[in-house]
Every structure is written in structure tokens, then in C-alpha cells.
Amino acid sequence: MCRSEEKTQLIRHNTGVEATTDLKTAISFAPDFVVVAVDRGHVAEVAEEWVLRGFPVITETPVGASFESLKRLWNLSIKKSAKIVCCEQYYRQPMLSKGLSL
Questions:
Q1: Residues 1, 24: Cα–Cα separation, whole Å
Q2: Are 49 and 43 in contact (CB under 8 A)?
Q3: Is the pLDDT score of 95 beyond 90?
Q4: H-only helix segments in the chain
Q5: 56 preceded by cis ω (within 30°)?
Q6: Does the structure show a pLDDT above 80 at 36?
Q7: Rounded mean pLDDT of 27-41?
Q8: pTM, entire model
Q9: Residues 6+ apart with CB under 8 A from 98
């Protein structure tokens, strides 16, 4: 699901993956999981919305902009057995790579 029709066309063209700007249409695609790629301040909120709709969620870092948002997601994972996975796309960046090696 994208914010603009232009973006949906770009995604369809570049990936062959269906895209839409409409929530009902996005849900009708019946995805196996949802990738949340929004600005950092809204990751937790958007992830929570999709989890409450019953979808597993993959997010980028940071998952939450505050301790409260992280706690909300953690509680969802415990109480609703929600599947929430955080993936870092820059794991080879020198600073992160060094941190991971430690």
C-alpha cells in the first residue's frame, strides 16, 4: 500500500508486485506478511495497525520512536502472539558491522 498512485505504478513496473493506495484493496491481496517502510516516527503505529488486522509484520529500524511504542508492540507480541520482525538493511555499514562483531 502506497501513499500515491505514482508510487504504486513505480512498484508495479519495477517489481511486478501489486500495489494500491486503497486499504481495502491492500487487504484483499491477502499478503502473507506486511513490510512497514514509513518514516521513523510512525513505524510502531503502522506496524500495530497491521498486526491488529491479523498480519505478520516486518519493520525497519527503529521499530519504535519511544519506549512506550516499543512496549505496546512487545505487549502485542505477547498477548496476541503477533509476529513482528525487525530487519536492518544497513548491517554492512561499517559502524553497525563493527557493533555486531562485538
A1: 10
A2: no
A3: no
A4: 5-15, 23-28, 43-52, 67-79, 94-101
A5: no
A6: yes
A7: 92
A8: 0.79
A9: none
- The C-alpha cell 536492518 sits at 88
Q: Are strands 57-59 and 34-36 parallel, antiparallel or unpaired?
A: parallel
Q: Which helix or strand (DSSP H or E) is residue 20 part of?
A: none
Q: One-letter amino acid identity for 94? A: P
Query: Distance (Å, rounded) from C-alpha 41 to C-alpha 39?
Result: 6
pLDDT at 71 over 70: yes
**How far, in Å, are 3, 33, 44, 77 from residue 74 at the CA level?**
27, 18, 10, 5
The pLDDT of residue 91 is 64
% pLDDT > 90, the chain: 65
The per-residue b/e assignment along 40-61, b for 16 or more CB within 10 angstroms, e otherwise, is eeebbebbbebbeeebebbbbe
CA–CA gap between residue 93 and residue 90 (Å, rounded): 5
